[in-house]
Specification:
Length: 219
């Protein structure tokens, strides 16, 4: 674990700063869920709706992380396992929504996609910046960082899709971004589950220190 993350379970100054950062990104993500879901439904964009649900999932992730912050590595790794499974479920849901809108032949609003996507990108860049220093922590911290990083990447894709919808007059760029967001969620799910499982296995090994819960880091 990176030394900047402090010792798990200790109420260090770094941990206090991390807790404040989590509260800030929780508020940002909750507000963006409401704004982006409203815009996604109004603009008939599967990419915006998918990204909005990702904001909701992230809000839940940050709330759960705040609950287990400072607890033992077993609790934090368990929370990361739940979040990894949630990421996977979200990915499969987006795949389903992409197929549905493809069959329906929906044409989203490029203007709404572009403007709301830009707002969401700004929100996620701020969130990622607040969490950047904790990106190499344990599986719980790692999962939080991946949430914000993935969202920023997804927002860039949404903005690109808006340009594609405007230029082509078709909905396929929106559907393509939906598939990209789903793939990103599924890959992050696998990464978090592997790291959390490694931490739990380390706890059962007599050669590992339960206080640190060291495990292989996913880069």
């Amino acid at each position: 674990m990176s030394t900047c993350c402090g010792t798990p379970g200790d109420d260090t100054p770094v941990l206090k700063v991390y807790r404040r950062a989590l509260w800030a990104v929780l508020a940002i993500n909750a507000a963006m869920f409401v704004a982006e879901m409203t815009a996604g439904v109004w603009g008939k964009s599967v990419a915006l709706q998918a990204d909005a649900l990702d904001f909701l999932g992230d809000s839940t992730t940050y709330a759960m992380t705040l609950m287990v912050l400072g607890m033992s590595i077993r609790w934090r790794a368990g929370a990361a396992m739940i979040k990894g499974l949630a990421m996977g479920g979200f990915g499969f849901w987006v795949i389903g929504m992409t197929v549905y809108h493809w069959l329906q032949g929906s044409l989203p609003s490029a203007a709404i996609m572009g403007s709301v996507g830009a707002l969401a990108l700004a929100a996620n860049v701020i969130s990622a910046g607040l969490l950047y220093r904790y990106r190499r922590g344990d599986s719980n911290m790692r999962s939080v960082w991946l949430c914000s990083r993935n969202d920023a990447i997804a927002n860039l894709a949404v903005i690109a899709a808006a340009s594609g919808v405007w230029a082509s007059g078709t909905g396929w760029p929106d559907l393509a971004v939906g598939a990209v967001i789903a793939t990103l969620a599924l890959s992050s799910s696998v990464a978090i589950l592997r790291l959390a499982r490694g931490e739990l296995q380390d706890l059962r090994s007599p050669t590992k220190n339960p206080a640190t819960g060291t495990g292989s880091e996913i880069r």
